[in-house]
Amino acid sequence: MKYQTTKKGIFKARPNRFVAQVDIDGTEHTVHVKNTGRCRELLIPGATVILEYHPDALRLGRKTEYSLVAVYKGKLLINMDSQAPNSAAARWLLEGGFEKATGMKPEQIRREVTYGQSRFDLAFSIEGKPCFMEVKGVTLENDGTAMFPDAPTERGVKHLEELAKAVKEGFQAYVLFVIQMKGVRGFRPNYETHREFGQALEKAAAAGVKILAYDCLVKENGFSIDQAVQVVLGEN
Question: What domains, with CATH codes, occur in the chain?
């Protein structure tokens, strides 16, 4: 996952979840935020942010020339582009990352596939058996542990319930947590923010849904899925 042109800026404020005010070379700009989550622990005044530049913005009818895609949390660079994990996961499947991790080769990879009342991010087959994969981007980190979600997500709970249902009906199902940073020791659900999601993830795992979490090699101009990290379920 790469961006064509990027630029650094200094975060000033976030008037709403869609836009932010960023100082770029001494001039304040309104930029699009490619993540509608809270990100309160990341977007703090004075933080260094990475912006994707859109040179054809005006011609294409965009309201802003820049999109905020990453932020430095101290020395830690975190990609916070919520649209990027799906593309990174699809590339990971196509380029053999999943096969290397599981020993199983995915075929007929497709994106945005409807099943029941949900639309899953990815679908593929393994030795003729159909599989679904839901991808969740993770930007929240606390003391070396990555957590999801950073805000309540009823949609996320629904997806987990649909994946568990799919397993009962003979499909294989996966949840892939794409941790958009490097250096975490493990992953756990954020029970404190949304206990229902954590409990739904536990139930999905018990039903046979495979839970995967991978960190990423993050650069200012993009990122790629890298290594598996330990998944810890349960509030204690």
Answer: 6-79 (2.40.50.580), 84-231 (3.40.1350.60)
